[in-house]
């Protein structure tokens, strides 16, 4: 099916690609040129909205509804993709070029057995020419992705597989017809680190072994450092820097890349993460010159006049910035927070066991949080960490045990707690797109806890303005609606709502997982400042172990509803005692370890 | 989070969702559609006739004019009805009570239905089951039958008509609104309100209602269409607050035996009821399309 796959001819070449919004003609991505030789992995990184996925889809000759490929060239193993007609592109996809989408659960048809779906790919491309050859290939594929290939397993439906298994079925499908080019669009987002490690291992192994040119789209820099050979950084629809993994991470040259690298938490890092406020401009609102100039500390008039040309920084390393200078941003070292007041316990949890409709999911969990302390609860999905936080917040009612705020023992249901207790524990939710009422202004949202506390109007107005400023927004945000804000701004508003009536404890449930990495770092900096200034205690629930280093004093590691390890953040990450924690840490990709 | 055209699928999806939430109003989107405008023209015209008609009528509501069921009567436009009254005047008088009763019944039914639906969605569990199964019992009676049973027992007072029509509307509205509210209730801002201990009525009316308002609006329009039909049918069967008063439904019944000699007495009210319901139906359809986002993209960007 695929003939030539030698180094010089195969691979993926993108030249001067531009994709437009159909109605307005504004560029979604522009001047994108990339080269991925056969057998290598190029990591395409950037924040959401930067155009990564648009580029990935263009490799398949596809553009989403409402956008069109305006100009440029895409060659996959010497085939000019954009010159093909619809039938030609259909034959290409799944054959010469494959795509692995982000969410395997929605990419697989829930009504068809996986065997049927895998055979479909082979049949569509008439792989091997006979059904015997296809069956042989099917068995081979399953072995390649390390899944059992027996009839029983192939007769399963997608919902009978775990997320990691589903994604490996997706990989098997992508590799079915031995493609020359593979586009992977955030294939491990939403998977646990151990599952992610397996999937990455499979991708690495198959691309090397079969000489596949892979475009790996992600926002996770550590994954790129771990897996890719080369990196391209996108910002506001353009490639701003391109180089080898070592070049980009050891000597980032574009100011944006520097911010990106400085914002990435690392499990083996010894420095604090640094964030950046603001957001990338949307298509149609991009300035004439460099799109990063409004957020850039080095920007000059020259930057705003025209988009900078390509500047070569080192061999095989170039950036589009006239101020490009290789070298990582200086960051302060990690240090213990001074805010913690040992012995002054704000929140204590004793023997907490929780269940869902009779099925116990949390077993005998106990911990204490001192005033000014940040305790991280870390665990994979299903470990019960969110359930614990919801019990404390009074949102989950099926539990036994004792939760004390100060000296007072709390009722199970938030509604049965005293007003001061409800206001004393404030919950910040994972998804800032769901936690704010879209029909209500930011000001009205932040005001509610104050109104419930019986604060008078003038004081409430003043407090709303003060709180907005405390979370690094301005008082004018009070009149805006949530959909006029970026994800990071929304999460700041959610934090402001929690802070409005001066709580004792802030329960943060995965609050940065829906945010881009530079925004995440800015939120982490904000939380650190709040702890320092207000003496706030914090419970930080996360699956993101590297982040814990930057924010928490102490850590509780949970697995299957139980605490498996606890201690100071530095101790747990650098000198873990338990096998489970050790595995969790070794499975977590790290930039520092990848470069070492 | 910019235009849905950019970025990862996540960004695209949330961008589109944000756009939905930010639509200026369902009304404005609906007004962009021809069907809505035709609907508003029809319903508006008939509504106007019903409301202003009595002041324009050349004769009194129960004034004897000439021989019964005659087409060519000097001084009248459309002749006389079965009782020798002016058809045009009866027609102009006969819409008001239907429209007022239908509007009142719909308002009451939608208010009860959407409150119950939202509350059931918010509470879930046993409260939800109790409310919805109780409403299912009402739903199991055919709409007309329910009204007929009650009205034949207690007489056709205006309030009883409004009440029974509202009662038969309630479970239907409740089901739709509950369905719309279920997805709102699962969002974290409701949990945030719960954690703050906001009073439950406030959560239902201040947090949930603004987010299901579009569904309520669409459903209200649909229910108005049915209410007009139902109240006209009841009138046709003779159940009106005042049997001597002019009423479109009643007019059809009174004049149908003389359809051959004097078709206007039957035709005019039939046409009016039909156009009024088609009009409100078209408005509802336009609103539903605007809410669901059908035809979106044609006018956008």
Strand segment count of chain B: 0
Low-pLDDT regions of chain B: 1-23, 296-301
Oligomer: heterodimer
Q: Report, as a whole number of angstroms, the end-to-end distance of chain A.
A: 40 Å
> Compute the gyration radius of chain A: what is it?
25 Å
Residue-averaged pLDDT of chain A: 90
Based on helices, strands and strand pairing, what is the structural class of chain B?
Answer: mainly alpha
Global geometry of chain A: globular
Note the total helix count of chain A. Answer: 22
Describe the structure.
The complex is a heterodimer of chains A (596) and B (301). Chain A has 596 residues and is α/β, with parallel strands linked by helices. Chain A has 22 helices and 22 strands. Chain A has an eight-stranded mixed β-sheet with strand order 6-7-8-3-9-10-12-11, sandwiched between helices. Chain A has a six-stranded mixed β-sheet with strand order 18-19-20-15-21-22, sandwiched between helices. Chain A has a four-stranded antiparallel β-sheet with strand order 2-1-4-5, with helices on one face. In chain A, strand 11 and strand 12 (317-319) form a beta hairpin. Chain A is globular, with a radius of gyration of 25 Å. Mean pLDDT of chain B is 84; it is low at 1-23 and 296-301. Chain B has helices at 9-22, 26-31, 34-56, 87-93, 96-123, 125-139, 143-154, 158-185, 188-196, 200-236, 248-255, 264-292. The two termini of chain B are 16 Å apart. Chain B is elongated, with a radius of gyration of 23 Å. The longest helix of chain B is centred in the C-terminal third of the chain and has 37 residues, at 200-236. By secondary structure, chain B is mainly α. Classes of the chains: A alpha/beta (596), B mainly alpha (301). Chains A and B meet through helix 1, helix 14, strand 18, helix 15 and helix 17 of A and helix 1, helix 9 and helix 10 of B.
């Amino acid at each position: 099916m695929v003939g030539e796959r030698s180094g010089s001819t195969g691979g993926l070449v993108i030249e001067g690609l531009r994709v437009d919004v159909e109605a307005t003609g504004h560029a979604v991505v522009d001047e994108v040129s990339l080269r991925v030789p056969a057998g290598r992995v190029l990591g395409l990184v950037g924040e959401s909205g930067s155009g990564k996925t648009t580029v990935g889809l263009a490799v398949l000759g596809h553009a989403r509804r409402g956008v069109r490929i305006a100009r440029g060239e895409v060659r996959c193993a010497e085939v000019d993709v954009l010159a093909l007609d619809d039938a030609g592109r259909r034959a290409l996809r799944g054959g010469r070029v494959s795509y692995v989408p982000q969410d395997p659960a929605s990419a697989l048809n829930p009504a068809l057995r996986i065997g049927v779906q895998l055979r479909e790919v082979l049949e569509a491309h008439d792989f091997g020419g006979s059904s015997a050859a296809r069956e042989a290939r099917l068995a081979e594929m399953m072995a390649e992705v390390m899944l059992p290939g027996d009839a029983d397993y192939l007769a399963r439906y997608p919902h009978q597989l775990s997320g990691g298994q589903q994604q490996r079925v997706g990989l098997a499908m992508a590799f079915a017809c031995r493609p020359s080019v593979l586009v992977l669009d955030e294939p491990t987002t939403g998977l646990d680190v151990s599952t992610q490690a397996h999937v990455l291992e499979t991708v690495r192994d198959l691309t090397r072994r079969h000489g596949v040119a892979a475009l790996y789209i992600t926002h996770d820099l550590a994954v790129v450092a771990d897996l890719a050979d080369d990196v391209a950084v996108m910002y506001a629809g353009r490639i701003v820097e391109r180089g080898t993994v070592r070049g980009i991470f050891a000597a980032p040259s574009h100011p944006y890349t520097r911010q990106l690298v400085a914002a990435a938490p690392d499990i083996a890092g010894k420095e604090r993460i640094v964030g950046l406020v603001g957001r990338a401009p949307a298509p149609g609102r991009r300035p004439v010159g460099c799109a990063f100039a409004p957020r850039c500390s080095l920007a000059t008039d020259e930057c705003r006049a025209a988009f900078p040309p390509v500047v070569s920084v080192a061999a095989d390393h170039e950036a589009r910035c006239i101020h490009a200078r290789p070298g990582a941003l200086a960051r302060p070292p990690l240090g213990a927070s001074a805010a913690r007041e040992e012995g002054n316990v704000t929140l204590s949890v004793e023997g907490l066991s929780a269940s869902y409709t009779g099925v116990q999911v949390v077993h005998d969990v106990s911990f204490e949080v001192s005033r000014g302390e940040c305790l991280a609860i870390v665990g994979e999905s299903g470990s019960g960490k969110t359930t614990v936080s919801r019990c404390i917040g009074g949102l989950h009612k099926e539990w036994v045990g004792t939760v004390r705020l100060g000296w007072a023992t709390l009722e199970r249901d938030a509604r049965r707690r005293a007003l001061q207790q409800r206001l004393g524990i404030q919950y910040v939710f994972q998804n800032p797109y769901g936690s704010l009422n879209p029909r209500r202004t930011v000001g009205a949202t932040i005001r509610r806890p104050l109104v419930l506390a019986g604060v008078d109007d003038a004081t409430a107005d003043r407090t709303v303005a003060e709180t907005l400023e405390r979370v690094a927004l301005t008082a004018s945000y009070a009149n805006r609606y949530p959909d006029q804000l970026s994800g990071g701004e929304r999460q700041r508003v959610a934090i402001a709502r929690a802070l409005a009536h001066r709580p004792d404890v802030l329960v943060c449930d995965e609050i940065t997982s829906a945010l881009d990495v530079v925004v995440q770092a800015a939120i982490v900096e904000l939380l650190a400042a709040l702890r320092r200034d207000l003496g706030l205690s914090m419970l930080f629930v996360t699956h993101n172990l590297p982040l814990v280093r930057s924010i928490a004093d102490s850590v509780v590691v949970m697995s299957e509803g139980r605490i498996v390890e606890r201690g100071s953040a530095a101790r747990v990450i650098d000198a873990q005692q338990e096998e489970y924690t050790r595995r969790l840490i070794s499975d977590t990709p790290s930039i520092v370890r990848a470069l070492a | 989070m910019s235009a849905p055209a950019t970025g990862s699928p996540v960004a695209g999806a949330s961008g589109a969702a944000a756009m939905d939430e930010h639509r200026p109003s369902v009304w404005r989107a609906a007004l962009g559609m021809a069907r809505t405008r035709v609907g508003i023209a029809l319903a508006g015209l008939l509504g106007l006739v019903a409301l202003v008609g009595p002041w324009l009528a050349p004769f009194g509501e129960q004034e004897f004019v000439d021989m019964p069921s005659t087409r060519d009567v000097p001084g009248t436009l459309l002749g006389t009805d079965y009782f020798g009254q002016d058809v045009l005047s009866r027609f102009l008088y006969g819409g008001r009570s239907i429209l007022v009763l239908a509007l009142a019944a719909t308002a009451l039914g939608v208010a009860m239905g959407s409150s119950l639906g939202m509350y059931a969605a918010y509470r879930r569990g046993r409260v939800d089951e109790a409310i919805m199964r109780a409403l299912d019992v009402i739903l199991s009676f055919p709409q007309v039958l329910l009204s007929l049973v009650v009205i034949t027992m207690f007489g056709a007072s205006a309030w009883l008509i409004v009440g029974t029509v509202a009662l038969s509307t309630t479970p239907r509205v409740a089901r739709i609104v509950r369905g719309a509210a279920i997805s709102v209730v699962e969002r974290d801002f409701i949990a945030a309100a719960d954690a703050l201990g906001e009073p439950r009525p406030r959560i239902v009316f201040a947090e949930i209602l603004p987010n299901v308002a579009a569904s309520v609006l669409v459903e209200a329009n649909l229910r108005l269409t049915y209410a007009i039909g139902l109240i006209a049918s009841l009138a046709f069967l003779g159940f009106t607050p005042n049997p001597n008063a002019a009423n479109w439904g009643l007019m059809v019944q009174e004049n149908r035996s003389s359809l051959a000699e004097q078709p206007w007495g039957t035709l005019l009210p039939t046409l009016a009821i039909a156009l009024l319901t088609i009009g409100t139906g078209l408005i509802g359809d336009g609103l539903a399309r605007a809410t669901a986002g059908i035809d979106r993209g044609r006018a956008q960007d």
